Amino acid sequence: MSDYPRVLVLTGYGFNQTCGGSITLTNLFRDWPKDKLAIMFSDHNENDPKIVEKTLRLQRKLFIPYINIGIPWNTQKAIKTNKTKINYNKKSLRQKSVFLFRSLLRKVFNGLGITAVLTKYPLSFDVTQFCNSFKPEVLYTHLGGVAVAALTLELMGKYDIPTVIHIMDDYPSNIYRTGLMSSFVRKKMNSQLDTLFKNAAVCMGICEAMCKEYRERYGVEFIPFHNPVHPCFEKKYDNNSISKTKDSIVAIYSGRVSWGVVESLKDICKAFIELKQNNDKQHIFFKIYTNDVGSVISQHPFFASLPSNVEIEEVPQNTFEVASLFKNSDLLILPVEFQEESIKAIRLSMPTKVPAYMASGTPILLYGPQKVPFVADAAKRGWAHVVGSQANLLQSLKDLIENQGLKNNIVKTAIDISSKEFNYEIVQERFIKELKRASSSSFE
User: Fold this and answer.
1) Which of 165, 164, 161 has its CA nearest to residue 137?
2) Is 214 in contact with 294 (CB distance < 8 Å)?
3) What per-residue string of b and e applies to 32-46 under the rule 16 or more CB within 10 Å gives b?
4) 3-state secondary structure of 82
5) How buried is residue 133: exposed, middle or buried, by Cβ count under 10 Å (0-12/13-18/19+)?
6) Residue 444 predicted with pLDDT over 50
7) Angle at 441 between CA 128 and CA 29, to 5 degrees
8) Is residue 141 within 8 Å of residue 165, measured between CB atoms?
9) Minimum mean pLDDT range among 76-90, 102-116, 297-311
């Protein structure tokens, strides 16, 4: 246990299974001693008590220029109230005035594009008391925006604490792009990042493609750390375990249904519909597992009227159930959109599910452009069957369903790569080593 430093985690989300970042966070710290782990977070979801017990939910406040009074902003209570907007007519005059004032401020500041620099997580009494009580040896943060970066800088200055920065996606290239004063916000963000990266004990990226570009962009070393594969997802390669052509085929996609994937996911749904219509020898199903299905359907009506062989349902929150889905399906689907805006947004990322997909022993079909590095990597190394155009999608699905040799090669390659690059014990050992190195670092 002495090998584990006392780590204070600072993120927008928590230790749970609600998004890719939270899953990665959970797996990296899954075996950390509870007495040496604490988290300050802003997510309205709770933390898994099996992972962490010492928690503090941050309160975000908006500070109006020249008035040093913080107004609670996007707190858990405010989020629920804004979503429901219950009984507006029954509110008191004071409540209505506050509601209208907040709505007006939100519209004005969003229109100017300056909400990010006016809202922050203050270094409050609760925060300092939490830090003083825990006495961290390392501050580990995922950043993700100006507010978390600002609090990170304040904590580094107040406690002179070695900091590990782990970037999940290339948000510096993609956020704060709207509003009259957005260029000012980006300038502030880049200034923060330059300071943070230069003074961090360790900088990490989500994959080698990101680390390579960030080394050149920021002039500091970045080390790749992706989501390690939980052992329950791992399956040893067995040439006889790959499904032969059979009467019923089940393909699945597990993950969010939003920007970056939704249009390609629609193409895949249409291909499975056509595949069923042209095939009377097999029952072919495509199942989409995601969070908040109701919200997905309301935002994307396409998924409200799917045929009988295409289904959308809630993803299980239990890791072992998700692993069972991956290992017992016949095909895993990985969609990436072809629009330039989407390519730019995800270019330096790799989906959290990729290592688990690889380890599952189920062949992967990756539908997306090779302008994205992880798509190009899949095509080059063969851990997935890559389809680069809608015109080839239907035939590629047929090939992957019917071609036993193709399936065997993909599965063998994917398992081999996963066992070397995303093995739970190997990644954990490297991760502990880097945080221990950070805890022993000092700054002049």
Assistant:
1) 161
2) no
3) beeebbbbbbbbbee
4) helix
5) exposed
6) no
7) 65
8) yes
9) 76-90
